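queue> holo job accepted (zinc ion)
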Amino acid sequence: MIGVIADWADLEVVREFFELFKTPWEPCQKDQEYAVLLSAGNGPFYGNAKLVLYYAGRKTHYDDSNQIETGRQRHNTCILSYQGDRIPIYGDTLTFPDGGSSILRDEDSRECVAYVDRSKHRVLVRIGYDLFSEIRTLLAAGQPPVNAKLPALELHIAFLRNLITGCGVPLVEIPPVPAGHRFIVCLTHDIDHPSIRQHQWDHTTLGFVQRAVLGSLRNVLRGRMSARDMLKNWLAVLKLPFVQLGLAKDFWRDFDDRYLALEKGLGLRSTFFVIPFKNRPGRNVRRPSPHYRAARYGAQDIADTMQKLLAAGCEVGLHGIDAWLDVDAARQELAEIRRLTRLSELGVRMHWLCFDQQSPLTLEKAGAAYDSTVGYNETVGYRAGTTQAYKPLAAKRLLELPLHVMDTAMYYAAYLDLSPREGKALLGRMVDNAERLGGCLTINWHDRSLAPERLWDVSYRELLQDLKTRGAWFATAGQAVGWFQKRRSAIYETKAEATQTGCARVPAEYGDDLPGLQLRRHSAQGSEEFGTNGSAGYVDVPFDDSIDTSVPFPTRRQ
Ligand SMILES: [Zn+2]
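queue> job finished
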């Protein structure tokens, strides 16, 4: 059990951090003896523990009264090196004169930013940044694209976990890993262009022609496309006038069959986000050419396709227009998809990923089941620094399933402009992270990405094969959020009366289609070996209802 000393103003952030860590904790009670005390914030230090973890990015009274020698305070973003990982810090950092027991260093200056002091009756770890202010930044503002590939929030958890076990204290947690699997994968498809015929000869069609004719040739010359695929694209351009006249097949219209053939063949189910109304660009879009945001179709136009996808076990959600900024608009947009699907629970992803810090509350008020918008248009990675579904600070119940990989960000010339080989390597690193950290890898492959002129089907097929071999649980977005809700509902409590051990319990009933949880028991390592993977010395025990933690919990003094 960790006793936590933090500012009351940070309580929501502290709660969310420990929902994501899912290890027993409580706000520090003055008369209680804890195995670990974690202090962060501006208030005074109090309490007793054999292990004290003291986080602050500035010199404090605690430093003075404990004769802690401090170095300089810095206000700029920096990256800390930790056992091969890079942890970005967005708030203040404090350095310490190097006493030889440094465990975190500034990547550039090599100055010590955290060290272990075992010289007194207790072990003290002084860490020169404010943990909860970092978590607040990640959950509220998110990371700039330059740090997208750093799963910062997960690294803060991994670092804390390793501090505790590395300092000789055993730990339990319910990791973000479903029983029987290594991690979760959500395959999602934003439906932006389900028919090229509906575009007539607008900017989308002209862009298609340009990329199919010249872009394909350029890609062949750069070794990024086969001559066969180039010919396929050229043929599609030649067919286009006939498609527009209704005399040839609309090659963007069969996206459902293309995805069903590929995914169902592997036994997978995916989630499709559908735009409710045609010709609406939406309000307050702060990107170039905002009028291009208007879709040429509305959900009504693909009502049969939605039914077909649902019948095949897929999920359908709202690809919202104004739902992110207006409760009434969100209600109308959700109502349109509900009317056509008869689904009561609908998740949301906003078109062009339009979002602000109040959007989770807006969507929650309108009755959305979850959101999956927080990601990047221009790059791949962890905007909120996490692989887990989390509760945004503005929301009361709505969970955010962050979006990590978007095909267009990887392959479009204006964004990362990756070759298929580079794309495969980047995806491999994202899957490595999911395997190592758990949580969910959320992928968006757009509706027309398997068709001319993109033809990104080979990359997608290879990705699915890789994910299958690595033991992922393939969930629809709603199922993944449901599993995270189940994990969040688990509580730690002290077992009956005299015993000092605790148990973890899931108080509510959850559907059979969700995998179970696991209790991970870390044994104490009792050394100064701090590794981020936390893989040394733990045992996972699956459970569904309740389980003994076998780790002492404090008994309350009456
Ligand atoms: Zn979209």
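queue> The chain has four domains: 2-173, 183-195+254-483, 197-251, 491-552.
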